[in-house]
Amino acid sequence: MIKEAAKYYNLKELWNNLSRHPENRVFIAGGSDLTISLKKGSVKTDCLVDISDIKELSLIEDRKDHIFVGAGVKISEFKKNDLVKKYFPAMLEAIRYFASPSIRNTATLGGNLANSSPSADGVLALVASRAVAVLNYYNQRKNSDIKDIFLGPKKNSLKKDELIEGFLIPKWEHRALFFKSMARKIFGISKAGLCICLNQKNGFIKDISIAVSSVAPVVKRCFETESFLKDKKIDLSVIEFAMGIISDEVSPITDHRSTNDYRREIIKVFLKRALNSIR
Ligand SMILES: Cc1cc2nc3c(=O)[nH]c(=O)nc-3n(C[C@H](O)[C@H](O)[C@H](O)COP(=O)(O)OP(=O)(O)OC[C@H]3O[C@@H](n4cnc5c(N)ncnc54)[C@H](O)[C@@H]3O)c2cc1C
Question: Whose CB among 2, 59, 187, 235 lies 3.0–4.6 Å from 70's, allowing a Cys bridge?
Answer without folding.
Answer: 59
